[in-house]
Amino acid sequence: MLVDDQSLLRMGFRMVLEAEDDFTVVAEAGDGAAAVRLAASMQPDVILMDVRMPGVDGIEATRLITAAHPQIRIIILTTFDLDEYAFGGLKAGARGFLLKDAQPSELTAAIRAVASGEASVSPRVTRRMLELFGSRLPAEGEDAAEAGEGSAADAARIDVLTDREREVFFAIAEGLSNTELAERFFLSESTVKTHVGRILQKLGLRDRVHIVILAYEQGLARP
């Protein structure tokens, strides 16, 4: 389902998606309130959600939809790469965040990733998060507790992970996909999925997006 208050943009997205054999656009909405209603009746697998819309905005619509229909996966689409939009959307339950000027191949890859249960966060957004929270990272030789209580608590939290799982955790926080993780660590994708599943289970997180949130919000990511 496409949600954007500009009909020409929805038309453009529809043209890109319907050129792919495995995509069908089942509905369109011009504002968040309509998106909430259509999500309930159409039950799309994935929603491309604009942020700034009249009335109910994309962040609130995402929160309402994911609360009522957790199986629906939402990708936030916006022209703004500011951290407040990325974090607001991800905390509201979105599974991905892309800028509207993403290449068609990047857009379709993100939809396929999110539909299969992965997260998709724009590399530019990942870098922006690192810039925002980088000042909270412990300096070389500094104890985590000195960097702040939240960082210390969550640094201790990830101590339950094995060395390999910690490596995968930090790589996910960089925005790497399963394929990229497999290439970096010379593992099969099935092994990567096993590691990701164990990380989520051990940390009590819902999905990969929450790994990114935990890592960046608490200053656990590595530059």
TrEMBL record:
Q: Which GO terms describe its molecular function?
A: DNA binding
In this protein, which residues make up the domain named Response regulatory? 1-115
Pfam families named among the record's database cross-references: GerE, Response_reg
Work out whether the entry's keyword set contains Transcription.
yes
Q: Can you give the residue ranges of the HTH luxR-type domain?
A: 154-219
Provide this UniProt record's keywords sorted from A to Z: DNA-binding, Phosphoprotein, Transcription, Transcription regulation
Q: Name one GO biological process term.
A: regulation of DNA-templated transcription
Q: Sites of the modification 4-aspartylphosphate? A: D50
PROSITE patterns according to UniProt: HTH_LUXR_2, RESPONSE_REGULATORY
Instruction: List the Gene3D superfamilies hit by this protein, alphabetically.
Output: 3.40.50.2300
Q: What is this protein called?
A: Response regulator transcription factor
